[in-house]
Write a structure and sequence with these properties.
Elements lengths: L1 E3 L8 H28 L4 E6 L3 H16 L3 E2 L7 E6 L4 H20 L4 E6 L5 H10 L5 E3 L7 H11 L3 E3 L13 E3 L4 E5 L1 E2 L10 H5 L3 E2 L2 H13 L4 E5 L16 H9 L6 E5 L8 H9 L6 E3 L7 H7 L5 H14 L4 E8 L6 H14 L3 E6 L17 H24 L5 E9 L6 E6 L4 E5 L8 E9 L3 E7 L3
Parallel strand pairs: 2-3, 2-4, 4-5, 5-6, 6-7, 9-12, 12-13, 14-15, 15-16, 19-21
Antiparallel strand pairs: 1-8, 10-11, 17-18, 17-20, 18-19, 20-21
Helix pairs in contact: 1-5, 8-9, 12-13
The structure holds 5'-deoxyadenosine (5AD) and iron/sulfur cluster.
């Protein structure tokens, strides 16, 4: 893991004050951690377990950075001195998984009462879940949310002083506190938050309620963060936001996402730019032009469809029709014929008929997605769709889901086959987990390729000839020029 060191703070005076305050808490906690470690004759360990999306992954890197500064040694081992669950609540099964893991860790704590257990992230922004945690999981020591991740040291300090559970949940936060240390999973690539929250209120989605209103960071702050990351060895960034295409709304400066990308492209040492997630209703022609002209923006766009039926899209409050989506894909492919397009699809939304589902299959076939994440609709309390009571039959939903999976598998395998024989740039990411003579790397289109090599190439961009497609990954051989 690699550490980003902090240079000059720049995200507003309040943020600077807050950063300093949190640094003080980190050193206070560190003193306590080191003295306990001395008494025990060993390091204290901390394990952060992440559920959900890239936003949560990035938050966990921040949490790990703080815990390291607090004197903990990070471990993947769940029976650590401090265990922190960074939760997701986008679908019900994410909640179920958390409670299962929490029950198991509670039993571990019975033998080790000094253990500290924390829960943070999207789930704790729901009052009902906090109530359940407090009532049924009294062994949880720290409960905090998505708006005060950077306060971990302060919250932990308060728990260590008081000896009782600390619950600290905020409804929103107008301050960006971005200059605390982070521990990146990969030294050579990093997520970068460009905005927080979501204003779209798709009727099925809990995100606007747990991540709050949309808020963009100033472009100069984003550029400075990326520059610092490149100084620290980062070659690829993933610009993160729930809806990156509406980046810039509410900022004093006059900038949109296409404008931000141009500024990021100018960062010398940066080699690759990715972003996530694009909302089809806000994807501009300017963005398509910037992507088409760019050497660094990857050849991939994730464009959640959700449903191919205009009727269902209306009920989902997505703001586009089936035809709008197809026309958008046409415009994208006109400028970038080989771009990889991936998507998210929800099956079994309330009111979805067989005909609606056929429309989804029709879009899947017409677009030819390179891959798709498919989800069965999950009712989230508090969202408008939770009041829709016309759910399709479970049997129909399962059948549709399986049919969709099969169609996607066939289409994406056919698309993947097209690259066989080409030599393409690959960012070497690590040793293959099944065969240590192979390196696993990522193509610009986001697909993985395994090729013979050594750890010397990790973090570098190398040329790989694609020899064989396995449907959703490849085998290849490195090509060295000159
Ligand atoms: N049920 C099922 N899938 C959902 N998603 C968001 N909310 C729900 C829900 N209530 C899916 C969407 C989104 C992805 C991140 O998760 O497809 O794009
Ligand atoms: Fe949820 Fe829609 Fe916002 Fe995505 S755009 S986070 S699906 S409300």
């Amino acid at each position: 893991m690699s550490e980003t060191n902090i240079t000059k703070p720049n995200e507003g005076k309040e943020a600077v004050r807050e950063t300093e305050k949190q640094r003080e808490f980190m050193s206070l906690v560190k003193e306590m951690t080191l003295s306990t470690a001395k008494a025990k004759g060993r390091d204290l360990t901390a394990c952060v377990i992440t559920f959900g999306c890239q936003m949560n992954e990035r938050d966990s890197e921040k949490l790990k950075g703080i815990l390291t500064e607090c004197g903990y040694r990070l471990t993947e081992y769940e029976k650590a001195d401090l265990v922190l669950f960074n939760t997701c609540t986008v679908r019900e099964n994410a909640n179920d998984r958390l409670y299962g893991r929490l029950g198991a860790i509670g039993r571990v704590k019975r033998d080790n009462p000094d253990m500290i257990i924390g829960v943070c992230g999207c789930m704790t922004q729901e009052a009902d879940e906090v109530g359940k945690l407090q009532k049924s999981y009294p062994f949880v020591d720290l409960i905090f949310g998505t708006f005060n991740v950077y306060k971990l040291a302060e919250i932990l300090h308060s728990r260590l002083i008081s000896g009782s559970t600390v619950t600290d949940i905020w409804e929103s936060n107008d301050e960006f506190v971005e200059l605390l240390p982070t521990k990146r999973k990969y030294p050579f690539k990093s997520g970068v938050n460009i905005m927080y929250g979501c204003d779209n209120f798709c009727t099925y989605c809990i995100v606007p309620y747990v991540r709050g209103r949309e808020k963009s960071r100033a472009s100069d702050d984003i550029v400075r963060e990326i520059e610092r990351l490149t100084e620290d060895g980062v070659a690829e960034v993933m610009l993160l936001g729930q809806n990156v295409n509406s980046y810039g709304k509410g900022l004093v400066e006059d900038i949109d996402f296409a404008g931000l990308l141009k500024k990021v492209e100018d960062i010398d040492k940066l080699k690759r730019i990715r972003f996530m997630t694009s909302h089809p209703k806000d994807l501009s022609d300017a963005l398509i032009d910037v992507m088409a002209a760019s050497d660094k923006i990857c050849n991939h766009i994730h464009l959640p469809l959700q449903s191919g039926s205009t009727e269902i899209l209306k009920r989902m409050n997505r703001g586009y029709s089936k035809e709008d989506y197809l026309e958008l894909v046409r415009r994208i492919r006109e400028k970038m014929p080989n771009i990889s397009i991936t998507t998210d699809i929800i099956v079994g939304f309330p009111g979805e008929t067989k005909e609606d589902f056929e429309e989804t299959l029709d879009v899947v076939r017409q677009v030819g997605f390179d891959s798709a994440y498919t989800f069965i609709y999950s009712k989230r309390t508090g969202t408008p769709a939770a009041k829709f009571d016309d759910l399709p039959d479970k049997k129909d939903i399962d059948e549709r889901f399986n049919e969709l999976l099969a169609v996607i598998k066939e289409i994406s395998a056919k698309r993947a086959e097209k690259l066989v024989g080409e030599t393409l740039e690959v960012l070497a990411e690590g040793i293959d987990s099944h065969d240590d003579k192979l390196i696993t790397g990522r193509l610009s289109n986001n697909m993985l390729v395994h090729f013979p090599g050594t750890d010397k190439s990790i973090g570098k961009i190398v040329n790989v000839k694609i020899e064989e497609s396995k449907g959703f990954y490849y085998f290849g051989t490195e090509v060295k020029y000159g």
